[in-house]
């Protein structure tokens, strides 16, 4: 047996250590900003102002966060089953087909609130389908899910370009995208709702998918911690041998877990396709599938952590866009670096500061308890 | 039907296209045989391609470029080592992180240094690897069959191509005929046994990871200063993952790795050529299908032909000394 790291109180384990990891990730990102000759403090200020400084920016932040809640939950569900779904990007992309299928065919017939559940179902189904083959190959053939899901990202990109250029593009149009959806294929924006509270969201594309995302977060919590299937998924993740010994079907669990994961990633398309662009366009996920990995790691796989982590990355996306406007050397690719650093420090290097923090905590506790010990000694 | 010259042309580009895969797959071989899974071949190739193209562009020397490429890739390897050996982190998570950092960093630094949207300036003259003429290449050119093969395919490649293929026997020799190789393989199967013999698991794994960095450095340098004339955004385009697939396909053995890489390189070369060609029964193949073909074939090959892949037993598991 390996010697585990010392047990620490929950607030250190789930609060302090992730916070320290996050701070270090941002410090290193700051060094990159210094390296390209800009001031990291100024960059951070610009970013914060862009993301939270005015209502429209905040609307954009929440819009991006909605994407990341879906993809973050997707990665987290797979993580609980011990599977690394790196294919969220492709699953989200293909999920767009499901949304487009509903919006294009029923958009002129049914109102949005009838189309929404259909779009949810189909985007989930398409995302799940795209995750099915890698899952099946992992379960039956032992092909590593990481490699196959990466390959499926590339394949999804080619497939979608093929469909958009060759099949879905309206006759006579040059742009590789579908026609604009009819009114029933457009989700309402939350502009009106926020105006009640005196905020003007301006052109921010925040829409009702935000609530779908939050409901999905609650449902994922219930699935993982309150259902039998969730228990089996966690068992599989904790120890595949234990799962096998307990009579659970590994094949079934891998496939089901990955399909739920892929389905959640596919639902991201609701927000971008039906909630914002009202058409299916090339590369609409814009890396959201990959951001999900960082979000899930930062949120420690728990919906209560994933939602704030998604908002943080929403802030980075929106603030980063404004930042790129003011500091041309810092393009959107800066976010990819930050994403990588967060994955590195919150995921792979999560143990780096643990011994140090643990030792410091022990010392503090020892020092505060010392006088009591001395009194006992004197009395004895 | 295909004539000899276009067939040789196909073989020639197979060799070129499989070279970066071969470097990367051998890099992965060292790392994974020592028990460190490495999904970050992609990112290390990318950062090496960028570093070598940048150095070659600034100083006009391809050898300096290669050195910087190797340095950059080794630096990233050490991060992977730190996360997966010293801090016992999840090796796949660490690899994914490195791939993202490399993808973003190359663009941000490239934009800041050269201002060309993430590309490096085009390389020319001494900034690129040039073709090596093997001895007598000219003399035997007119000999039927052997002549074109020798002077057209074997001769006239860039030096790194020869280095890559020489690495195969060298790797075999190192892994299976030296003490270091024996220990390296042992540490990937049963680190506790190696530890009991008084050999440092940590140092052994770090050495494997550094070798991995050096070889991915070669792979990246080949991409940007041998195959192409400069760095372009995301120029590895999944080659690191395909190399990993080749490694699994070859069951972590050096000589089969070479054949697997040649196979993937060949498929790549074919897929470039079938674009716009009328095939019997199928007709014209769409551009998108052709571009997706290497990835589809990777999945198909892994799914259909890998018997039972037997990865190193201790792969992916951090080693903890009992206390």
TrEMBL record, chain A:
Superkingdom, natural source: Bacteria
Keyword field contains Cytoplasm: no
GO CC annotations, alphabetized: plasma membrane
Compartments reported by the entry: Cell membrane
Membrane-related topology note: Multi-pass membrane protein
Regions crossing the membrane: 12-37, 57-80, 92-113, 119-137, 144-165, 204-224, 253-274, 280-299, 306-328, 334-353
Transmembrane in keyword set: yes
Keyword tags: Cell membrane, Membrane, Transmembrane, Transmembrane helix
UniProt cross-references to Pfam families, sorted A to Z: BPD_transp_2
GO molecular function terms attached to this record: transmembrane transporter activity
PANTHER family: ABC TRANSPORTER, PERMEASE PROTEIN, GUANOSINE ABC TRANSPORTER PERMEASE PROTEIN NUPP
Record-given protein name: ABC transporter permease
Organism: Jiella pacifica
